[in-house]
Every structure is written in structure tokens, then in C-alpha cells.
Specification:
The protein is α+β, with helices and mostly antiparallel strands. 25% of the residues lie in helices and 41% in strands.
Length: 158
């Protein structure tokens, strides 16, 4: 049975988009050489709010395999999130809440036909591991930034 990368990435995107007020979700890494492109790619206007940066990118960073009776592929995805930083609006609280919501979504997400939202190499790990939360500047735009590592274990052959 071949791997299901395209089906898995579509499911990850769908799960992210189901998180309330998640923002714009791209199912691949977008590269912006200038601030206006970055703004265009990640601009979001929540209901009753004003336009600002709020978005996510998804990419796979590793996919090791092993055989334990069957062959398993351990997909490791990186979910990168951005949110305009505005101290007066306490956006740190909003961003921290979004991070928790993303982790909760994948902790309870339905598994696919051939994959599981879990770290098959380390059963004590939840599917999401938040690796970085910090402010960063993109061009002249100050943003909250996070990297969440998402583990998916896929059975690829009997």
C-alpha cells in the first residue's frame, strides 16, 4: 500500500481550519521575500474584529520508517503559527489560547484509514509538541510565532 501524504496533509489542514478563529491555513510553506507578500498571505479578519496577521503553515520535516511486523512511517510535521502582536489588546493571551486549541484538536482528532495521530516511536508523547513560542519580526511586522511538532504514525504495508 503506498503512503498517503496528500490525504494526511489535507486532513491536518481540515482539522486546523476547524479550530475557531484559527486564521488562514496553508498546507505548505509559503515564502515571502517582502512584507507586503507576507501580509497578503496571512491577513485575517475575525468576526467583529479588524484585519491583522493570523495564519498557519504546514510542512513535513521528517518521515522515518521501520518494520515491526508491518512497515510504519512516522510522519513529523511542523505547524508554524503567526499572530500580529499588539500589547494593548493582550494578543499573547489570544495566541496562547490558539496554541492550546490546536493541541487539543489533534489530541482528539479522528485517525485516518491507515494513520494515527500519535507518536508511534514514543507512546508517552501526545501527537503535538509545542517547541517554540516567541515574538519575531517579519519585515517590520512584530508577531507572535510558534512551532508545533505534530506526529502521525502511518501503517504503510502489511
Amino acid at each position: 500500500m503506498p503512503g498517503n501524504y496528500t490525504t494526511i496533509i489535507a486532513d491536518i489542514k481540515s482539522n486546523l481550519e476547524a479550530v475557531t478563529n484559527i486564521g488562514v491555513v496553508h498546507d505548505y510553506y509559503r515564502y515571502a521575500a517582502n512584507p507586503s507578500t507576507f501580509i497578503a498571505l496571512f491577513s485575517y479578519t475575525p468576526t467583529g474584529g479588524s484585519k491583522h496577521i493570523r495564519g498557519w503553515e504546514i510542512t513535513r520535516i521528517r518521515a522515518p520508517e521501520h518494520k515491526r511486523g508491518a512497515f510504519f512511517r512516522h510522519h513529523v510535521f511542523k505547524l508554524t503559527g503567526y499572530l500580529s502582536l499588539k500589547d494593548a489588546d493582550a494578543t499573547d493571551k489570544t495566541f496562547q489560547g490558539l496554541i492550546d486549541d490546536v493541541c487539543e484538536k489533534f489530541r482528539t482528532a479522528a485517525d485516518g484509514a491507515t494513520w494515527y495521530y500519535l507518536d508511534g516511536d514514543n507512546g508517552d508523547n501526545a501527537p503535538c509538541q509545542v517547541e517554540i513560542i516567541e515574538p519575531r519580526i517579519f519585515g517590520e511586522i512584530l508577531c507572535h510565532y510558534t512551532e508545533i511538532i505534530l506526529h502521525i504514525t502511518e501503517r504503510i504495508a502489511p
